[in-house]
Amino acid sequence: MATIGVVGLGAMGLGIAQVFAAAGFTTIATDAHGPARDSTIKRMSESLAARVAAGKLSAADRDYTLANLKVVETLADFAPCDLVIEAIVERADAKQALFVQLESIVAGTTILATNTSSISVATIASTAKIPERILAMHFFNPPTAMKLVELAPHSSTSADALALARSLAEVAGKTVVQCPDRPGFIVNRCARPYYGEALALLEEGVTATHIDAAMLAAGYRLGPFALIDLIGADINLAATLGLGAAMNNHPRYYAFAALRGQVAAGHLGRKSGQGFTFPAKTDAAADPAIVLRIEATLVNEAAWLLAEGGTSAQGIDTAMQLGLNFPRGPFQALAQHGKPTILATLADLEAAAPPFLKTRYLPAPALEIS
Fold first, then answer.
1. What is the β-pairing status of strands 134-139 and 148-153?
2. Cβ proximity of 287 and 214 under 8 Å
3. Which among 198, 293, 328, 322 is positioned nearest to 254, based on CA atoms?
4. Catalytic residue among 150, 197, 295, 301
5. Closest Cα partner for 210 from 202, 218, 220, 200?
6. Helix (H/G/I), strand (E/B), else coil: 149
7. pLDDT tens, 20-39?
8. 263: alpha, beta or left, given left = phi > 0 and alpha = psi -120 to 50?
9. Looking at 138, 154, 236, 295, which residue is catalytic?
10. For this structure, is 47 an active site residue?
11. For residue 345, which of 75, 90, 240, 296 is within the disulfide window of CB 3.0 to 4.6 Å?
């Protein structure tokens, strides 16, 4: 088995380390912050103990996982690693500096992977001596439960590095979807209309409860507002603003006043005790018009991404279903509704859009009927 390294032992890094250790890989892990490093074994033990208590894991498998984990103090101990994944602070300069340090320690064939989905992989690789070894392996939170890994190369990533990274993630039980080095990769980008169009409807006077109820009736596990409340309105706003800035502030990524207002008021969702719908419970109630509007914008965003290359319609559908537990991916929704219906919906929305949202609903070229 290959040796895996994980740098950064917050919730994401700890989860990634547990995934590989549970799969039988010798897993070397560290964190620059002493308390995070020193509490690693305790935190992982507690996570595994909960699974044992729930009957989802045997005591032997718990012990096996912990035996495969080695917490170290210095990067020098990462020398034997075949793959190192960083899950440190979301700053390009910090990730670049870490990879420069690691390149002086690990073998020339060792893959250096970033867990980012918000920073360009090409930017992170730009200061490396061997940029061909650098790629993104974006795990979803919590890594121990979420099956999806988005695998994102930059233009110089080698085929060997891609193949090995995919193989190691698959051995660890993950479903790997390759995606382009574009802002938000697949899930974080293609999810924006799920929230954004719901917020547009809210500002038009439709209630958050009614919108969520419509999506629940259409098979979605959580409505858009319940999902914002779960993630945190502040996190959702930051992701929207970040993607908008990366995409030249296109109206498709507009940050609606209702979302900004929630953040300003401190109504962040579950973590603050009050959100768009939380703590109330929403029951499913069908409204096909709302579902069509939201799914039409999901389809359109996915079609724009597909046109940029580096992925497939099937890959986008798989990523959206696994990354967000959607009942169907955008292209499956397209097949269900049909191109004429999607195009007519987008045309109506564009015609009715206020000036600040003009061009938001223009269809991707791939959606045009030949």
1. antiparallel
2. yes
3. 198
4. 150
5. 202
6. strand
7. 999 999 999 999 999 999 99
8. alpha
9. 138
10. no
11. 296
**DSSP conformational letter for 173:** T
- What pTM was computed for the model? 0.94
Using an 8 Å Cβ cutoff, are 224 and 195 in contact? yes
Residue 170 parent element (H or E): helix 159-171
What percent of the residues of the chain are helix, what percent strand, and what percent coil, each to the nearest 5?
55, 10, 35
At 255-306, the pLDDT tens digits run 999 999 999 999 999 999 999 999 999 999 999 999 999 999 999 999 999 9
Q: What are the residues whose beta carbons fall under 8 Å from the beta carbon of 177, sequence distance 6 or more?
A: 148, 149, 150, 151, 186, 311, 315, 318, 319, 322
Q: In terms of Cα–Cα distance, which of 173, 218, 172, 170 is closest to 194?
A: 218
Other CB atoms within a 10 A radius of the CB of residue 357 amount to 17
Backbone φ/ψ region at 204: left (φ over 0), alpha (ψ -120 to 50), beta: alpha
The third-level CATH classification (topology) of the domain covering 187-367 is N-(1-d-carboxylethyl)-l-norvaline Dehydrogenase; domain 2 (1.10.1040)
Domains in the chain: boundaries:
3-178, 187-367
Write the pLDDT tens digit of every residue in 73-129: 999 999 999 999 999 999 999 999 999 999 999 999 999 999 998 899 999 999 999
- Catalytic site includes residue 188: yes
Q: Active site includes 350?
A: no
Q: How far apart are CA 245 and CA 126, in angstroms?
A: 21
Which residues, in sequence order, are CB contacts of 141 under 8 Å at separation 6+? Answer: 11, 12, 15
Angle at which helices 40-53 and 59-67 pack, to 10 degrees? 160
Q: What is the rounded radius of gyration, in angstroms, for the C-alpha atoms of the chain?
A: 21
Q: How far is CA 161 from the centre of its chain?
A: 21
Catalytic residue among 68, 115, 117, 120: 117
| Annotated active-site residue in 68, 115, 120, 188 | 188
CATH, domain range 3-178: 3.40.50.720
Known active-site residue 150: yes
Euclidean distance between CA atoms 106 and 192, whole angstroms: 38
